[in-house]
Amino acid sequence: MKEGKWLVLEDIDKASGEVLATLWPLVESLALEKHIGGHAQLRVHGRGLVRAKEGFALFATRSVMSSIDGHVPTLTFLGAHKWYPINITAPTDIELRDIIHTRFAKLPPAVIPPILGVWSKLQRLANSSAAARHLGTRDLMKWCTRIESLKVPSMMDLDELSNTSFVGVIPNSSIREEVFIEGHDILFGAMSDRPAAQALMTSMASTLATALGFGDEKLKFLLADRVPEWEVVKGSDGKVRTVHVGRVSLPAVVTKGPPQTKSRRQFALHKPSLQLLARLATCVALNEPILLTGETGTGKTTTVSHLTSLLSRPLLSLNLSQQTESSDLLGSFKPVDARIPAAELQRRFQEMFAASFSREKNLKFEEAVRTAVSTGKWKRAVALWKECVKRARDRIQRNQEG
After folding, report:
1. What is the pLDDT of residues 226-243, one digit of tens each?
2. Which of 183, 313, 320, 357 has minimal CB crowding within 10 Å?
3. Which neighbouring-strand residues pair with 51?
4. E strands along 19-86, which residues?
5. 108 with 153: CB under 8 angstroms?
6. Do residues 97 and 197 share a domain?
7. Of 57, 82, 107, which marks where a domain is finished?
8. Judgement on whether residues 161 and 43 belong to the same structural domain of the protein
9. Which residues make beta-bridge pairs with 233?
10. Helices 173-183 and 137-149: crossing angle, nearest 10°?
């Protein structure tokens, strides 16, 4: 506020009542009925009234599910009537085409119409059923990010107005297989085992496979029988340099010393584990957060540990529970008695001082340092320590010159 910056509060409807009550006076000070020339202000406990600098602006967002009739749920959070609401509709196909074309410059323009064509079908299937989560524009952007990373070759004689199919735009079936796998992982690969969810997943998978020019046998292979490639590349010193899994190559951290000995805990590279490793590697390469869901003992943590071990990357495992606090993750400041670290510094100072100078000739100096530390006069103590360091450097320099 004091610097006149713009502030955006994301998902304000999920904030606690305490936070909303704190924001209420600030929002009220920005309302239309404020006096001319007035500035936003907020009374902070212990600091008094804080006035915002000229140019300060306050924004808030909330995410809602789209409905068939376009109805937007009413504002219900505390202080909602003080905000000026602006409803933002989902972008149309033409607007999505422009967004994708601008945001994903490496994506060939001819690929955009087929992507949007099958995306609209998949979105209708998912959003019309209660068995699947809502698919929104964010999912489409994630899918496009992964398709762009496939480095689809550009067809020079086609453009985004050609309205060709995936087969005409991407004749390479291997790349189209990767497009299917990425669409599966992003859009419908994490559905539950309930019959309704599995039926919906089968329908969405069939829709995507048909759009990509694959038949039932190919679809079955992609869903059940496809095994990602796996290769661990080592250097001449025996250390791992790169791990190739699926279409992704992850570089390892080259450490000093002898190569890492084989892990005592064996890891079975069967089909499910290779498929999981391929999905993990893709997320790691694209810096995406990963949520592994499964029963106890299914290899969630073990798979991550195996991959980090091969790449020589540090792994920190934290067991979260209802008792976990934010300070356990972010750390916190705790009050420290300055006399405790000062006493340790004083002990080390005395040892080094006795080894460098004559204690008999410097009794008054030592006593002055001891008194400053015992009485908590830290500026005085630090100044004396620094003076001693300066004298030691001068003595070393004289000895070197002599």
Report:
1. 999 999 999 888 889 999
2. 320
3. 41
4. 41-44, 48-51, 57-60
5. yes
6. yes
7. 82
8. no
9. 242
10. 150
